[in-house]
Amino acid sequence: MNRSLVRHWIALLLLPLLAACGTTPSSQHYLLTAPEAPLPQGMTPSIGVGPITVPEYLNRDSLVKRIDSNSLAISSTERWAEPLEDGILRVVALNLAGLLQTENVRLYPWHPKRAPDYGVKLRLVEMDSNAERVVLVAEWFVYRVADDSTVARRLSKQSRPLPATTQNGNEVAAAYSELLYALSQEVAASIAEAQGNPAAVSAPST
After folding, report:
1. Which of 12, 137, 138, 163 sits at a 20 to 30 Å CA gap from 59?
2. d(CA 44, CA 182)
């Protein structure tokens, strides 16, 4: 068999592989977001946000969806545009800045000589979606940084229904963003109460 014939057969064998590569769906990337809020007008209280921890099964760039109690589906095309811990940290910080109307929000780790008045730690227990709803379960801890005294510590569960028509990544990311805002409202309320001003939490703009 001459070389030209061999090259011909190799090319024929590679055609299906090339065609398969050409039809691979492109990845979609999603962000968690904070709702629009009035621009912060003050510098107090000063808030430090972090660290944020997530379960190991969520520690990936792919969106994870729950099939049943013990089964998960890891998407090959729907991905977070940033590490999930970083996205949660960013959004919670923005939420608290708007809710408490303070520009003085710092991300963990902060400089020890410029410690904030209050620290906020967040540990996600669950962050799941299925065909019907999204669920967020998180333990949050607010403390006074100066003396490490506890302000509030709670285990919070938030959930939202998903549209019945489809469960795409954009809807899941938007629903998670709503749950993180509801969680941030609880945290902001505990800080406002510790300051003796429980009515200080602002609503987002409409």
Report:
1. 163
2. 22
**Domains of the chain, each with CATH number or no CATH:** 28-196 (3.40.50.10610)
- Residue 73 CA to chain centroid, in angstroms? 18
CA distances in angstroms from 132 to 33, 67, 69, 205, listed in the order given: 21, 11, 14, 28
- Asked if residue 31 has pLDDT above 80, the reply is yes
The two structure tokens encoding residue 50: 């972090």
CB contact set of 131 (below 8 Å; sequence gap of 6+): 162, 167
Is residue 26 helix, strand or coil?
A: coil
If we measure between CA atoms, which residue out of 65, 87, 80 comes closest to residue 28?
Answer: 80
Chain-centre distance of CA 202, in angstroms? 21
**Inter-axis angle of helices 169-194 and 84-100, nearest 10:** 50
Q: How far, in Å, are 20, 49, 125, 131 from residue 52 at the CA level?
A: 40, 8, 11, 27
Residue entry with tokens 């590679």: 14
Cα distance between residue 160 and residue 58, in whole Å: 19
Residue 27 pairs with which residues in a beta bridge?
Answer: none
- Helix, strand, or coil here: 199? helix
- Taking only the tens place, the pLDDT of each residue in 101-127 is 999 999 999 998 889 999 999 999 999
Q: By three-state DSSP, how is residue 4 classified?
A: helix
